[in-house]
Every structure is written in structure tokens, then in C-alpha cells.
Amino acid sequence: MEAYLDHAATTYALEEVAELVKQVSTKDFGNPSSKHRKGIEAENILKEGAERIAKTLRCAPKNVIFTSGGTESNNTAIMGTVLGNRRRGKHIVTTGFEHSAIYKPLEFLKQYFDCEITYLPVDEKGHVSPADLKDAIREDTVLVSVMMVNNEIGSKEDVETLANVVKKVDPKIVFHTDAIQAYGKYQLDMRGSEIDLLSVSGHKIHGPKGTGFLYVKDHTKVLPLIYGGGQQRGFRSGTDNVPGVAGLGLAAERIYENHKEKTEHLYDLKQYTIGKLLEMDGVQVNGMDLDAWKKDPGIAVRTTAPHVISVGVDGVQSEVFLHALEDRGVYVSSGSACSSNQPGLSSTLQAIGLDKEMLYSTIRLSFCFESTREEVDYALEQMRELIPFLRRYTRK
Fold first, then answer.
1. Fewest CB atoms within 10 A around its CB: which of 10, 37, 185, 289?
2. What are phi and psi of 356, to 5 degrees?
3. Mean pLDDT of 61-78
4. How far is the C-alpha of 80 from the C-alpha of 324, rounded, in Å?
5. Are the CB atoms for 61 and 47 separated by under 8 Å?
């Protein structure tokens, strides 16, 4: 048996999504910039993709800009906003809790454009203080970026409240959120929202890899990062990825069908899994309010995202544990799939004040709406067998 429990890293494409991508790639393959019928058909496919996504956000299709994925969406939001509004100021506020697709463009802006960056702390559950955010805003603040759902521990940030704090201080400050782990897990309504920019990745919602989009609120000034033929109203040049957009639009539509039932299934599975994990000796769940859990696990688990669990295993190295589980057909991660390619300890786990030893001993389990209790039980069985065995070889 196999148990793939790494859906926060990537999901499989739905079969009908893959079929649609194939059809558009092989039959409806026109260039939407062409004036003939094939081009018009391709343009209509793009419009349909945008309309499908716009319905999930309750926004206009024109507010959806297609990208190559979450990294490009985040880079465009960060660098495009700062470069497009550089006369206003060079100060940026973010958290010590973001994805590398936020940190890296910030480092670039600091190095080459002399931007100043304030990194807000988070508490042990991964939450930013609205008061800290308000205090960090300056006259030259141009952008605030806060992740909606953390990709490593699954903490849910109240970005609407934070955006309101920012706009009350200065409506001209642009508020961006990385919603890559939140989209498809939460109902998002951009009507009346103070969020200006929102990043999404296709392969996190059973869409094609290499697809994503950036929601851009009306009248938000963002400088394009890619120039050429002026596609997407000049916002993002380059021949449109028509098959990818078609698949992304369909995946977005499908992920929100029967959404309440899907979310409840994920929460039930997460609650069950956490309960079993906490029964194991020397195992902890990071980012959870354990006092609230003891009072009511059902309520406590719903204060976090429904699909991510961060698990610390005392006395077992995360990389060793990961590969031992892999040998038994259980697939998890030792943190963010992107950050695992880079040396160093997890900035997320450090930000929540995790004990130093646990920084080396944490894995992540993550589910999708089709994950089953059978998969979880199999994974838990392998963990119970492996942990005592691995501890004998890692403890001095």
C-alpha cells in the first residue's frame, strides 16, 4: 500500500483537467493573439478560464492575471508593486513566517533598490499581532505582505483584519497575501475586501504545474515584470498558456464544488490524525493550541488550515524519518518542498520558537479532499514501528 500525504507540496491533476489540457494542446491549439478562427477559439478558452476563477473569488475576470505559478505571482506582487510605486517610498512590511518566493524578491529589492524591510514576529501559533503591524507602518511604507495560510504548519492568518489595519492607517499602502495554501480550502470573497493582491498556484488545487494567477484589485498599480507582445492587457507579456489556463480554470471550478463537504472531510481527517499522533511517545504537533485541543479538539483544529499538520518527533532526524517512511510507501515532507532545496533550518519553525532539537526533527503531513483514513492509518502504523527503531540509532 502507498500513502501520499504531501499534498501541500503538490497535488495530482484531476483526470478531467488532464484530459482538457491534452485536448487544448492537440486540437484547440491556436494562438489567442491570432486573428483567424483558431486564434479566436483560443481566446475564448482564456476568457472561460478567467471567468471560472473569477466566480470562485467573486470578482471580475479582468482582475485575474495568469502566471506560471505561485512564485511568479508572488514576485510580481512584491517587485511590481515596489517598482511601480517607488516614488511613494521604499519601506515594506512582512513577517518572519513567509515562503521563499516572498523572501527572495525582498532580498533583491533590498540589495539593488535600497528598500527597507520590517519583519514582524509571530507567536507560537504563527499569528501576527495587528498592533505590531500598525506600529510598523511608516510614512514611506509602500507594501505589506502577509501569508494567509502557512505552508509548513498550517496556521491561518486573519488577513482581512490585517488589511483593514493597514488601510485605516493609509489607504494607499498596497496589501498582498500569499494565498497559495489557502485557495481551495477557504471561501474567498474579494467584494469589499481590502486585499489588493492575492497569489494562487495551480498545482496545489489539482491543476497543471506551471500555472497560477495573481488577483489584482482595480486601481492597484503594479509594474509588469515581463515585457513583449503586450498580452493580458500588457500586464504579463508572452504567448498565453492556453492549455494551462483551461486546466487551471477547470481545477478552480472543481475544487469549490461541494466545498463545505470537502472541508469538513479534511478537518475530520486532520482531527483524527492529530489525536493518534499525540498518543505516541515523544511526538508533538506544532502550531496547535493544545490547551484548546484538550477542551474541544473539534473547535481547536478548525482554528488552523484543514490540510496541514506539522509533526515533531523527539530523537528522530526528519530527513532520516522521511526516507524511512518513503521505503514503506509513505510520502511526507520535512517542511516546505521549495525550501528543502536550500541549506539551513526552517525560518517558519524558528519564527514560532520551536526548540532547537525539534528544528531537526519535524515532518509535515498534508492531505487533499480525496485522502482517506485508510491511508492515514497505514502511515500511522509505519510511524509507530519506525520511531522506536530510529531513536536507537540517533540518540547518544
1. 37
2. -55, -40
3. 98
4. 43
5. yes
- So what's the pLDDT on residue 335? 62
The three-state DSSP-derived secondary structure of the chain is CCEECECCCCCCCCHHHHHHHHHHHHCCCCCCCCCCHHHHHHHHHHHHHHHHHHHHHCCCHHHEEEECCHHHHHHHHHHHHHHHCCCCCCEEEEECCCCHHHHHHHHHHHHHHCCEEEEECCCCCCCCCHHHHHHHCCCCEEEEECCCECCCCCEECCHHHHHHHHHHHCCCCEEEEECCCCECCECCCCCCCCCCEEEEEHHHCCCCCCCEEEEECCCCCCCCCCCCCCCHHHCCCCCCCHHHHHHHHHHHHHHCCCHHHHHHHHHHHHHHHHHHHCCCCCEEEECCCHHHHHHCHHHHHCCECCCEEEEEECCCCHHHHHHHHHHCCEECECCCCCHHHCCCCCHHHHHCCCCHHHHCCEEEEECCCCCCHHHHHHHHHHHHHHHHHHHHHHCC
Write the CB contacts of 236 (distance below 8 Å, at least 6 apart in sequence): 65, 66, 67, 76, 224, 225, 226
Phi then psi for 362, rounded to 5 degrees? -120, 135
Q: Which three cell numbers stand for residue 362?
A: 519535524
Count other C-beta atoms under 10 Å from residue 216's C-beta: 22
Contact by Cβ (8 Å): 248, 57: no
Question: CA 151 to CA 72: how far, in whole Å?
Answer: 17
Catalytic annotation, pick one of 59, 115, 338, 368: 338
* pLDDT the model gives residue 344: 62
* Strand arrangement of the beta sheet that strand 283-286 belongs to: 283-286, 308-313, 362-366
Query: What is the b/e burial string over 290-302, where b = at least 16 CB atoms within 10 angstroms of the residue's CB?
Result: eeebeeebeebbb
**Chain position carrying cell 499569528:** 127
- Render pLDDT for 94-134 as a digit per residue (tens, 0 to 9): 999 999 999 999 999 999 999 999 999 999 999 999 999 99
pLDDT category at 394 given cuts 50, 70, 90 is low
What single-letter amino acid sits at 212? G
What does the pLDDT look like over 284-338, one tens digit per residue? Answer: 999 988 889 999 999 999 999 999 999 999 999 999 999 999 999 999 998 644 4
Contact at 8 Å (CB) between 155 and 126? yes
